[in-house]
């Protein structure tokens, strides 16, 4: 009976949609598999598509990792003043910092330079359409006003402000969508989160304050902390996205319960598949772009340098050209690109990130039509770049993203058939000569590429491209 309850609650809910089964690597709790199946049964592909419409169109978003670990750039001062390398937002676990000591960072966490408007302006200038911020990372500290846990930024820091609220408001004000990240299965502040892998593994729980694993009960933590906080996030900030992380320990009935909460309070909210147990609306790839893309809606999340949280001294930023080409690569496979920044403890997005975002935004301002609202094509990716497309009954608009501008001015798009309606350079509108033969479309290009990172040619064809 226990697992039926959330489903009954569901029946009365307005719109509910669920993704089709995927090849997700998330574990399946077969004991409750029928609960998940039942959830899927009351969600149609049309409902899912309606929920995901804005997100599919957006293609590009900003991930923000920000928390107590940002304070000293992930370097933790020992009692003798020596700085220990905490290796990112995993600092507390890596250095086995006792929770009482770690909590002291909150005493000095005072991000006086935080400006939600400035973060939103940065995202917007980069051409991003949504923001996802860490509301609670693995350290267990809530970066929002959490009535159910005093271990939060408003109560515990001298700053006493709620950045999730301010950011949600700034996003709404400027027409960006807003999402929250929530660490489900890691919480180093909580006594009841068990270690699910090897005790010395990367994903261990807090074994230094709470060494007795036999006393840990995930269900207690789930009821005491996860459910109340998810409810708070939904009712206080009405997020467009709930971006879960680390679902390894969650049972199907618990994933179902969370989904029920989301559908009850914010039916249009989309959810990544890290809610666990093959639920959720879209898949996530981390730090990689899947070679062939995926059939389900999907997103690649990626760092701009080597760390998610602010790490002082990490100047190893990807060149803007790589960022732009990654975005194109993702879009050419119908995916979204969630690009991360790690603001400092003062609340400032590092200059190296700002510069890449500005250059990416400048490229998107000229070439955004070839990214937003596009999909993958049935054609193979050409050796010189990538393809995206828009189709309607009249034909197909193919966007040719040319990474390597041909020295001889000749470009072949293999596999294209039909009739050329027009071929132009996107940014200048200059018309190009184009013909089609059995080898594909042949275009004659001007000597110089209009853009350095990637140049776009718009090739309109009739009838729609259908072959690979
Ligand atoms: C990795 C990191 C984690 C981060 C996540 C984002 O799993 O370990 O800290 O939040 O990537 O997907």
Compact overview of the structure:
Helices cover 28% and strands 20% of the residues. The chain has 468 residues and is α/β, with parallel strands linked by helices. The longest helix is centred in the middle third of the chain and has 20 residues.
CATH-scheme architecture of the largest domain: Alpha-Beta Barrel
Residue stretches low in confidence (pLDDT < 50, at least 5 long) are 1-31
The count of domains is 2
The structural class is alpha/beta
Order of helices and strands: HHHEEEHHHHEHHEHEHEEEHEHEEEEEEE
Mean pLDDT: 89
The description of the largest β-sheet is: 8 strands, parallel
Could you give the distance between the termini? 50 Å
What does this structure look like?
It contains 13 helices and 17 strands. With 468 residues, the protein is an alpha/beta fold. The chain has 2 domains: 16-370, Glycosidases (TIM Barrel, Alpha-Beta Barrel); 385-462, Immunoglobulin-like. The N and C termini lie far apart (50 Å). The site of alpha-D-glucopyranose has 5 residues, from loops. Residues 89, 245, 286, 301, 308 line the site of alpha-D-glucopyranose.
Q: How would you summarize the topology of this molecule?
A:
Elements lengths: L3 H8 L21 H9 L3 H14 L1 E5 L10 E3 L5 E3 L5 H4 L4 H5 L1 H4 L7 H10 L4 E7 L16 H4 L6 H11 L3 E7 L34 H20 L3 E5 L6 H14 L4 E2 L11 E4 L11 E6 L16 H12 L4 E6 L9 H17 L17 E8 L2 E8 L7 E5 L4 E7 L8 E4 L2 E5 L10 E8 L6
Helix pairs in contact: 1-11, 7-9, 7-13, 10-11, 12-13
This protein binds alpha-D-glucopyranose (GLC).
Alpha-D-glucopyranose binds next to loops.
């Amino acid at each position: 009976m226990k697992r039926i309850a959330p489903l009954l609650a569901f029946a009365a809910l307005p719109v509910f949609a669920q993704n089709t089964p995927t090849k997700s690597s998330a574990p399946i709790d077969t004991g409750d598999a029928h609960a998940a199946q039942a959830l899927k049964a009351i969600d149609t592909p049309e409902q899912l598509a309606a929920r995901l419409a804005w997100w599919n169109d957006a293609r590009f978003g900003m991930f923000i990792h920000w928390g107590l670990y940002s304070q000293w750039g992930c370097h933790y001062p020992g009692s003798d003043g020596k700085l220990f390398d905490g290796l990112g937002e995993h600092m507390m676990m890596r250095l086995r910092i006792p929770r009482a000591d770690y909590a002291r960072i909150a005493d000095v966490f005072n991000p006086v330079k935080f400006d939600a408007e400035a973060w939103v302006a940065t995202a917007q200038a980069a051409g991003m359409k949504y923001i996802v911020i860490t509301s609670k990372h693995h350290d267990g500290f809530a970066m929002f006003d959490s009535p159910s846990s005093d271990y939060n930024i408003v109560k515990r820091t001298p700053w006493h402000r709620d950045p999730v609220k301010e950011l949600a408001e700034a996003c709404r004000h400027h027409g960006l969508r807003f999402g929250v990240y929530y660490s489900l299965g890691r919480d180093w502040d909580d006594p009841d989160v068990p270690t699910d892998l090897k005790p010395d593994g990367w994903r261990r729980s807090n074994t230094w304050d709470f060494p007795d694993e036999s006393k840990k009960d995930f269900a207690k933590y789930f009821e005491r902390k996860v459910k109340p906080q998810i409810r708070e996030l939904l009712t206080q900030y009405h997020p467009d996205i709930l971006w879960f992380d680390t679902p390894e320990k969650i049972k199907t009935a618990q994933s179902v319960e969370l989904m029920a909460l989301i559908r009850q309070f914010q039916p249009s909210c989309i959810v990544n598949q890290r809610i666990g147990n093959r639920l959720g609306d879209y898949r996530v790839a981390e730090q990689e772009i899947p070679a062939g893309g995926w059939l389900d809606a999907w997103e690649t999340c990626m760092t701009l340098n080597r760390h998610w949280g602010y790490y002082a001294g990490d100047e190893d930023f990807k060149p803007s050209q790589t960022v732009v080409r990654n975005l194109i690569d993702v879009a050419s496979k119908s995916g979204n690109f969630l690009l991360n920044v790690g603001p400092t403890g003062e609340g400032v997005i590092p200059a190296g990130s700002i510069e890449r975002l500005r250059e990416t935004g400048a490229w998107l301002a000229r070439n955004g039509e070839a990214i937003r609202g596009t999909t993958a094509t049935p054609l193979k990716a050409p050796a010189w770049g990538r393809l995206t497309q828009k189709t309607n009954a009249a034909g197909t608009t193919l966007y040719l993203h040319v990474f390597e501008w041909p020295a001889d001015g000749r470009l072949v798009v293999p596999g294209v058939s039909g009739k050329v309606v027009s071929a132009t350079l996107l940014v200048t509108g200059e018309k190009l000569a184009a013909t089609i033969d059995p080898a594909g479309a042949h275009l004659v290009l001007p000597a110089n590429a209009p853009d350095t990172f990637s140049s776009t040619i718009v090739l309109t064809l009739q009838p729609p491209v259908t072959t690979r």
